[in-house]
């Protein structure tokens, strides 16, 4: 019989398997604690499990640990970027962002991405495969073990990949992140960020989970959004906003719209006014992010040679228009830039 990756099982599934092996189902709670709280590296670490049962566990399950090929820590703000190697040789990245009592991990959900957003560093690599639930959990286990003095309080699916495209595995991982007997991270501290996959947004609202939803909007103008986020041709702005309004109505949760500001493409006064017109009467937040030059990809200048990274003045003007119209808007702080751990720079920059 093939051994099972123990982290691919929910607590209930593990309990049932254990019963099938003649053990008590409650042992699943003990095992979860060993794996996700005490970060056990092997079944032998689980000292309060009888030796005979540990042997049964070894015969029936296996316990993975992700290997970090490399890591880079920013001297400025402690942001640490990890490059992980997966069993099949693929690589992904995760970033740990400490900030006072808060510790956020930016997680990848896929190896590569299908959606080819024009400004994103993951785009040129195309899509390889979904991460398994176990691999997503491993990202957090590794970072947690590497930072024993820090608390992991927040998780954001803003690394490589589109979480809505790997829906089941992402949701299974979230249930374990959420479990008070495992990572105990409140759903409200977990963010799923999507490029606007409407069926995913519709599905998520039926889960009864309090997770945060971010939608990468980047333009209120349909043609501009299609050029930046090609999936907009399938799920246009009008339909996307209608789905977001439904989501808010049905869940009572406020969506954050992410807006990567790219000078000359979506940064004008008319662009901010279009955003006001689109979102004006909706209960939501807008998070403006300065375009992070994808250095190794070379797309740092427009065809006329001008920089496409907005200045702080450009961002202030853009945000002012939104604020004056009553839109709840913030500017995202950029962290870890000197180690290329900023948004959109994962995997592409050389370690
Ligand atoms: N596929 C998901 C999650 C990955 S992208 C999504 O599209 O939301 C996570 C966030 O990083 C998104 O808001 C995305 O727009 C932003 N991002 C990607 N590339 C960036 C860049 N070069 N500069 C700034 N933000 C970027």
Features:
351 residues; alpha/beta; DNA polymerase, domain 1; TIM Barrel; 10 helices; binds S-adenosyl-L-homocysteine
| CATH fold naming of the largest domain | TIM Barrel
Compute the number of helices: 10
Number of strands: 14
Coarse morphology: elongated
The termini sit apart by 40 Å
Describe the strand arrangement of the main beta sheet, using strand numbers.
3-4-5-6-9-10-11-12-13-14
Q: Spell the H/E element sequence.
A: EHHHEEEEEEEHEHEHEHHEHEHE
CATH superfamily of the largest domain: Aldolase class I
Q: What ions, cofactors and ligands are bound?
A: S-adenosyl-L-homocysteine
CA radius of gyration is 21 Å
Domain count: the total is 2
The top level CATH class name of the largest domain: Alpha Beta
Task: Note the main sheet.
Answer: 10 strands, mixed
Q: How would you state the average pLDDT, rounded?
A: 91
CATH architecture label of the largest domain: Alpha-Beta Barrel
Ranges with pLDDT <50 over ≥5 residues?
A: 347-351
